[in-house]
Amino acid sequence: MANFKFPKNFLWGGATAANQLEGAYNEGGKGLSIFDMVKFVPKEERGNDPEMDVRSEKELEELLSLGDGENFPKRRGIDFYHRYQEDIALFAEMGFKVFRMSISWPRIFPNGDELTPNEEGLAFYDKVFDELQKYGIEPLVTLSHYEIPLNLVQKYNGWADRRVIEFFVHYAETVFNRYKDKVKYWLTFNEINISQFSPYIGSGILIDRVEHKEQAVYQALHHQFVASARAVKACHEIIPGSQIGCMLARMEVYPETCNPRDVLTALEEDQKNLFFTDVQVRGYYPSHMLSYFEKNNIQIKMFPGDEEILLQHPVDFLSFSYYMTMVASGDPAKLKQKGNFSSGILNPYLETSDWGWQIDPTGLRITLKKLYDRYEVPLFIVENGLGAYDKVEEDGSIQDDYRIDYLREHIKAMGDAIQDGVDLIGYTTWGCIDLISAGTSEMSKRYGFIYVDQDDYGHGTLKRTPKKSFHWYKDVIASNGVNL
User: Fold this and answer.
1) CA 403 remoteness from chain centre
2) CA separation (Å) from 418 to 351, 412, 423, 460, 480?
3) Where are the extended beta strands (E) located within 95-174?
4) I want to staple 152 with a disulfide (CB 3.0 to 4.6 A). Which of 112, 372, 382, 428 is the partner?
């Protein structure tokens, strides 16, 4: 039993992304997406590299020449496209108040730069939203969750080209107008800071086509900031009463010691991470980033009106993913360890997941307090969960107590933060149903409350089976976080 209370209308639910879930990559008029080009690489061949990037035009051409005999897991997902009714019924059985999903941009505009949308794609999401509405589940919709039509990469080098702003705004306005009576919660870009680590996945940039990588990445990010602000403006105008937020991959960083060099390094890492939300929530570039640009010969080309649009149309709430914390040292010789697209020194006080991600519920409370202190806007945790190997027992059950333990402690930390005065409006656990991993394209890295019978090579019946955590989370939601 928890000794605190969550707000009465707290939004409990789960989170997914179209490119890890839907499948049907070549059905319903859908165009190719950047993630459709990411192959599965077995763990023994991968090492510590997530292998998410496509780095050159030549590599992309080679991938395009491969047939369906190759293993492109994001193309198949878990077949939500044909099984959405069954899956949503399971979410409803758990009592979801909200379901975080994304719209596949190339399902609506197959090439990204058309004037007329693909009606088949629009109709598919109508059916999904109607199904959610049937059970009283609010959709929380991400406009771009690592989702860029491949044509925009080939023709414009993705967000490196300012013209992509207009294509995105046209796409956003199209779906706002179509779903204005069905969706009131929106997000612009998923983990907008990912471009720092993966220019291809975050911004659709092929690195061999640019001279100065950092220049290209930050210019692309500026275009995304402007596009996000314009989407916020359009959302408020088209859907009265709507709420639209930004989304950050939050990386809380601790200094390794109380040596001032470590503390300063941790502070600087924190500033880099929060730069994105500084722009989207506060509405302007922080001075430390302007200084960084100057020192690193990065010149952001701004058009007249860019700064005004950022300032006039900040987001309504700040959403973020939280999986782990990092440790920073002022000593550059310290051994670095990868995790969640970043790196950091191993924290001796924390346990580690099957994938080397350190488990830190208290870090979530720290992050919530820090973000609310800094911005004083409502917060929404839209990704949090444990990727683990799940075993199907002889009786067909999945006894995932480790997942329950992980989520329980993080929910307690959320409750403590709310007691501390933080305005937290909701919580959607990542991968509420097993899906394809974003980073490694594995199926064996499972997050869900619902087991999906499919392996890393696409073999399996796709049968859905509730795990032990399914029934636990159902009780958590029914008791509004009291029964943990």
Assistant:
1) 20
2) 25, 10, 6, 42, 13
3) 98-102, 138-144
4) 112
Residues 6+ away with beta carbon under 8 Å from 227: 164, 165, 168, 169, 172, 188
User: Could you count the other beta carbons within 10 Å of the beta carbon of residue 69?
Assistant: 5
The phi and psi torsions of 61 (rounded to 5 degrees) equal -60, -40
pTM of the model: 0.96
User: Which residue bears the tokens 């959405």?
Assistant: 84
pLDDT digits (tens, 9 = 90+) for 417-434: 999 999 999 999 999 999
Which residues are annotated as catalytic? Answer: 383
**SS3 assignment, position 443:** coil
Residue 148: alpha-carbon gap to chain centroid: 14
Secondary structure percentages of the chain, helix, strand, coil, to 5: 45, 15, 40
Closest CA to 208 of 59, 398, 372, 367: 59
Other beta carbons within 10 angstroms of residue 92's beta carbon come to: 16
Cβ atoms of 74 and 457 within 8 Å: the answer is no
The class that CATH gives domain 11-478 is alpha beta
In whole angstroms, give the CA distance from residue 18 to residue 365: 29
The SS3 assignment for 328 reads strand
- 145: tokens are 């969750």
